[in-house]
Amino acid sequence: MKIFHDGMPEWNKRNFTVLSAQSLREGWLDKEVSSVLVDLRPEKEAKAGHIKGAVNLNPEAVIAALKPFKEQKPPIVIYDSKGEGSAEKVATALVKAGFPGPRVLSGGFAAWQGAKLAVEAEAPATKIAYVPKPKAGSISVAEFQALAKALPENVLIVDVRGGDEVEKGMIKGARNIPADEVASRLAEIPKEKELVLHCTTGARAEMAYNILKDKGYKARFLDASITVASDGGFQIK
């Protein structure tokens, strides 16, 4: 199997995705993923019951409410009453406004209730309060930069981009093992070293990190966009 180069991040720039009620609970709320959960229903309905952590906004006010957080690129999940289409319209507008990859709760609040999941009865928030949290296993930009500029003997930077990409440049001392080959090339990856993974956006590095973590390796990944020059220099956004 081959992985399309940073497919989801690029795809997300132009589309929204759909979440089931169980996926929202297990993959987001239970894991306390830092995100913005938007309830588009009328105020009266939201006050009668809503998903924990949701902020109640009028559909026309969503983009303006999120604008102060645009540079932080918060994960956004939207739901309406019963999947009648308003959440999809807002998600489409968000993508056009430059908010990548919003998620829509399939079936809306009705699907959440139908799955017999917990509902908050208190009045929901009406203002967004987004506090980003680092992803599990990620390394800070500052620490990555320090390691790359003075690579310790016990650290190995693994560049998980494709071969055609690394031809344009690699960080000095890094080793290239494409993300879709990591599982089949474990013998080449030293377990005695701390591994620091990067790609171009963090997507493939996170995939490789999960593979290595499950195999008992000590690894972290750069969850940021990085461009590597032909001389080994790099820029991180």
List the keywords:
2 domains, about 240 residues, five-stranded parallel beta sheet, about 30% helix, alpha/beta, Oxidized Rhodanese, domain 1
Describe this structure in words.
- Residues 36-121, 151-237 form the Rhodanese domain.
- This is Rhodanese domain protein.
- It holds the Pfam family Rhodanese.
- With 237 residues, this protein is an alpha/beta fold.
- It folds into two domains: 7-114, Rhodanese-like domain (Oxidized Rhodanese, domain 1, 3-Layer(aba) Sandwich); 138-236, 3-Layer(aba) Sandwich (Oxidized Rhodanese, domain 1).
- It contains nine helices and twelve strands.
- It has helices at 7-12, 21-29, 43-48, 62-66, 86-96, 108-114, 141-149, 163-166, 203-214, and strands spanning 17-19, 36-39, 55-56, 76-79, 103-105, 138-139, 155-159, 175-176, 194-198, 219-222, 226-228, 234-236.
- The strands form three sheets. The protein has a five-stranded parallel beta sheet with strand order 1-5-4-2-3. A five-stranded parallel beta sheet has the order 6-10-9-7-8.
- α8 links the parallel β7 and β8 (175-176).
- The chain is elongated and about 60 Å long.
- The mean pLDDT is 93.
Overview in brief:
The chain is an alpha/beta fold and 237 residues long. Helices cover 29% and strands 17% of the residues. The longest helix is centred in the last third of the chain and has 12 residues, at 203-214.
Task: Report the sheet with the most strands, covering strand number, pairing sense and barrel closure.
Answer: 5 strands, parallel
How does CATH name the architecture of the largest domain?
Answer: 3-Layer(aba) Sandwich
| Tally of helical segments | 9
From the alpha-carbon coordinates, what is the Rg to the nearest angstrom?
20 Å
Q: Would you tell me the overall average pLDDT? A: 93
CATH class label of the largest domain: Alpha Beta
CATH superfamily of the largest domain: Rhodanese-like domain
**End-to-end distance:** 30 Å
Q: In what order do the strands lie side by side in the largest sheet?
A: 1-5-4-2-3
Instruction: Determine the structural class based on helices, strands and strand pairing.
Output: alpha/beta
Q: Which residues sit in consecutive blocks of at least 5 with pLDDT less than 50? A: none
Number of domains: 2
Order of helices and strands: HEHEHEHEHEHEHEHEEHEEE
- CATH T-level fold name of the largest domain: Oxidized Rhodanese, domain 1
What percent of residues adopt helix (DSSP H or I)? 25-40%
What is the percentage of strand-forming residues?
15-25%
- What is the β-strand count? 12
Shape: elongated
